[in-house]
Amino acid sequence: MSLFLVNRYLGEEDDGSVSRESRSQALLAKLQQKAKEKQKQSLTEQRQQLPEEQTVQQNVRKKRKADKDSSQEPQHHKKRKSEVVPLHVLDSENHDEPVKEEKKKEKGVNETQRKKNQSDSSVEGLSDTHVTGRDRQEDTAEEEAEEAAENDSTEKTSAPAGFTVVGAFENKPVQKVHRVLPQWLAQPDVIHRDIKSNLVPVSDISGLCAPLVKKLQNNGIQHFFPVQVEVIPAILESTQQGLLIGCGGYKPRDICVSAPTGSGKTLAFVIPVIQVLMKRVVCEVRALAVLPTKELAQQVCKVFTSYAEGTTLKVVMLAGQKSFAAEQASLSEHRGGVRRTLADIVVATPGRLVDHINKNSGFCLEHLRFLIIDEADRMIDSMHQSWLSQVVRAVYRSGSRSETMSIFKRAEPAYVTAASLSPPQMPLQKLLFSATLTQNPEKLQQLGLHQPRLFSSIHSHSSTTPAAPTQKQDRFDFPQGLTEYYVPCTLSKKPLLILHFILRMKLSPILCFTNSRETAHRLFVLLQLFGGIHAAEFSSRLSPGERKRTLKEFEQGKIQLLISTDAAARGIDINGVKCVVNYDAPQYIRTYIHRIGRTARGGKAGLAFTFLLGVQEKNFLQMVVEAGSPGIQKQVVKPENLKSMEARYEQTLQELANVIKDEKTR
Ligand SMILES: Nc1ncnc2c1ncn2[C@@H]1O[C@H](COP(=O)(O)OP(=O)(O)OP(=O)(O)O)[C@@H](O)[C@H]1O
């Protein structure tokens, strides 16, 4: 404004002695003087306003400006920049809010100062102070860089505080899944492990009828084993109100039993089932026992038949021992146009059972009250045959003859409603038994159990978890009277070891297991050629009749060594087996437990030897220990003990090669 006025204001009129030129120069000098005064005044005002630090910074800038002006080298700029940055760094490290405020103020002041300087510069330009365009640009760039750095550092420090960044998920540590068993699995009814010291007289069991007590005593059973003491009353209790309703009027609970091999599980279900059914009036299939093999079905059928003797109950076996037509005839008959059931208790293998369900119209399961699944873990594994779903469908079959005639209609269990509770239905109660019952709830779920109740002798791990997270396998209970050994050996020495056990150690009768029927047969032929021992083989090479005869002879003591595949590993109850030898180490712990369980049965003592090759030792021993074995001892057979048999053995091996060759060409 003053400049504008300058152009038009001509000043005071002096006397005529002063020339026009000198007057205008004087006027210019006056104006310059005024401009300088104004500049000084505004500077002092600013100094008063700014804190000391800002003044210092300003001075630094001014000094830098001056340096910039005086120097032409570009590297100086770089150096200066690096000198300025630490100021911001220092500031940015200080996270306090007031500092930020101060910075903003400082920035604002610097901005006004810059503008002022710009406007002043035009005056200064008049007073020979030069600020080039380039310098101004550099200065602005420098300030922008500083500003950016400042913003950066401010963002870095302030972003996390108080704001939720949408879409940003924190990496939370993944919590370990704590496996929890259902209560019925975690807290079972405990079965005592020690048979001998927990025997209970048969007459002491409440609810057991006198004829059965007498029959038991006649069969040489004076005391019940622990599993029988627990399970027999539990099954009887569930039928106290009759066959139709369980305790308190509810559907009876299913029962699962996990107890060691040879602990007497068979009688634990045979006795109560016989007692409950012996009062029946009309003959219908009310109990069905399913077992994995013919031999086992035969064995259980024998026990049922023995205790059904003297009652009107009829026991029928469906395991393919007889022809289908013969089995059909034993199940039902037609008289006067009416079908009559001839069986109260059916003992079956899954395959033959399904055949009768599908092809035999005379086979009716609509009155079934007890479904007994023995060797339950094995039967769960064979569930791919869908035998259970077929049984359940047959049990709840609708629209059949019996439904129209029967006063009791039956429908598959579903939601409880007033309608579903009346009229009363015949409940289906499942009874599961095994020495190696799985604790895997998912597997057990396949059985569709109703409020199951578990009886178990495995106390050590009956906690809340099925197994420790690091534990790879289930734990089982081993028979009390069993002593386990492993014998380190080589492949070629195995037959010599068997000979040593029978001829030197006199351990017979021995039940010896191989992993294949070929190995069983080769060993059998080899020992026959060697001579001196009475051996037999037991595998699918034999017909069912031959197998039955062989087992009988072995039990009678006519066979010293029975060489078997796993066909005889499960459930088979052979009296008087002193010793089991695993000629081939079993691959799975369940196989091991069932094999060695053929000895030390019913509280008696027994020995189990496992021949181990060097490479098998570590894994096998670990598997056995993890399964809960009380201890497996090392048994070394010295080479000198085998020496006297070696020459004959070498000769026999050559003969064996010829015999096997002949057999193959035949
Ligand atoms: N109370 C008892 N008194 C005497 N002997 C018994 C008694 N209960 C069962 N036994 C006998 O004990 C042996 C083993 O019984 P059982 O076959 O029922 O065992 P298990 O538990 O079913 O074995 P596995 O799991 O191997 O099938 C049989 O010879 C049986 O006769």
Question: Tags for this entry?
Answer:
666 residues; alpha/beta; Rossmann fold; 8-stranded parallel beta sheet; 7-stranded parallel beta sheet; 19 strands; 47% helix; disordered N terminus; binds adenosine-5'-triphosphate
Structure description:
- The chain is α/β, with parallel strands linked by helices.
- Among the domains are: 247 residues, 3-Layer(aba) Sandwich (Rossmann fold); 182 residues, Rossmann fold (3-Layer(aba) Sandwich).
- It is 47% helix and 12% strand.
- The protein has 23 helices and 19 strands.
- The strands form 4 sheets. It has an 8-stranded parallel beta sheet with strand order 1-12-4-11-10-5-9-6, with helices on both faces.
- β15, α20 and β16 form a beta-alpha-beta unit.
- It is extended.
- The N terminus is likely disordered.
- The site of adenosine-5'-triphosphate (ATP) has 18 residues, from β3 and α10.
Bound molecules: adenosine-5'-triphosphate
Q: Could you describe the largest sheet, including whether it forms a barrel?
A: 8 strands, parallel
| Helical percentage | 40-55%
Q: What value does the average pLDDT take?
A: 79
Measure the end-to-end span. Answer: 131 Å
Structural class by sheet pairing and helices:
alpha/beta
C-alpha geometry: extended
* Beta content: 5-15%
CATH architecture heading of one domain: 3-Layer(aba) Sandwich
Radius of gyration of CA atoms, rounded to a whole number: 49 Å
Unreliable stretches (pLDDT < 50, length at least 5) are 1-18, 68-159, 460-470
Adjacency order of strands in the biggest sheet: 1-12-4-11-10-5-9-6
CATH class of one domain: Alpha Beta
